[in-house]
TrEMBL record:
It comes from Oryzias melastigma. The keyword Hydrolase does not apply. Keywords: Metal-binding, Repeat, Transferase, Ubl conjugation pathway, Zinc, Zinc-finger. Residues 20-249 form the RING-type domain. Gene3D superfamilies: 1.20.120.1750. This is RING-type domain-containing protein. Coiled coil: none annotated. SUPFAM superfamilies: RING/U-box (SSF57850). One of its GO terms (molecular function) is zinc ion binding. The keyword Transferase applies.
Length: 263
């Protein structure tokens, strides 16, 4: 991300300027730039658009889609590059990461440590993956760990780690060891981790705004409360945006939710 805040030039006649809130500013950072309209009709600033698209890349996406609920409009990279005022360094990062993510998206496989052939994982909630080639060759089931890429040891199915030395789940480690966040606008909230797994899809999100306890997950686009881990509409039944949750602070997560997109 650029160290200096980017801003639109009001004399740029190729942009359509609008007088409304920045609709991609999910962390409420309140950027000073004038607002311009994307092809989907939503208002952005170059900083909020850069942050949103960077988040999509960090979540493994290779395409850019509007983050507003009920808007599935895909933005061409040419539009993102122009509207986000991407610097040369940002363009290099965006383009290389897009290519890497596209490769992973369409070829979601890893090399089996036994036969060295590529194997695709079907169950994302289970780290133990069976290699059919090794199973046939050995005449018995052969599983390896998707995480440490060694022959599986220990009970299964498991989503955190196998029993091989050095096998550990980096996301769970982050949830366990991340520092706490202190909300500037919400009194009496203590002990809230600064990293949470989205309760809907399991994506790891770091909350840095310190202003509002709710945010929108860039992967599944569901808004939830970072403090109590309820969906925002559920939290607001007994609380408000800037007051402590009625159920208090949810404890640190010890498992990562799996996204069942078709349920």
């Amino acid at each position: 991300m650029s160290s200096m805040e980017k801003s639109y030039n009001l004399h740029d006649q190729t942009l359509r300027f609008v007088d409304r809130e920045d609709e991609m500013d999910f962390l409420y950072e309140e950027f000073a730039s004038p607002r311009a309209e994307m092809s989907c009709g939503h208002a952005v600033t170059p900083m909020s658009l850069t942050n949103w698209c960077r988040r999509l890349l960090e979540e493994g996406k290779s395409k850019f889609v509007c983050g507003q609920p009920n808007c599935n409009k895909e933005w061409p990279y040419v539009e993102v590059r122009k509207m986000a005022l991407l610097t040369p360094e940002e363009r290099e990062y965006f383009e290389s990461t897009m290519a890497q993510n596209a490769a992973r998206e369409y070829f979601n496989s890893k090399t089996c440590p036994g036969c060295k052939f590529s194997v695709t994982r079907k169950d994302e909630s289970n780290l133990s993956v069976r290699c059919q080639i090794c199973t046939e060759r050995k005449g018995k089931p052969y599983e390896f760990c998707w995480q440490c890429l060694k022959e599986w040891k220990g009970p299964q199915p498991r989503s955190d780690r196998c029993d091989n030395d050095g096998c550990y789940n980096e996301p769970l480690k982050a949830l366990k060891t991340c520092p706490e966040i202190v909300f500037e606008s919400i009194k009496d909230v203590r002990g809230c981790p600064s990293i949470r797994a989205c309760p809907t899809c399991g994506s790891l999100l770091e909350h840095t705004s310190k202003k509002c306890k709710n945010l929108v997950c860039p992967r599944c686009r569901v808004e939830f409360c970072f403090v109590c881990l309820k969906l925002t509409f559920q939290c607001l039944r007994t609380s408000r945006h800037y007051i402590p949750c009625s159920d208090g602070v949810a404890p640190r997560q010890t498992s990562i939710p799996v996204w069942h997109q078709n349920t």
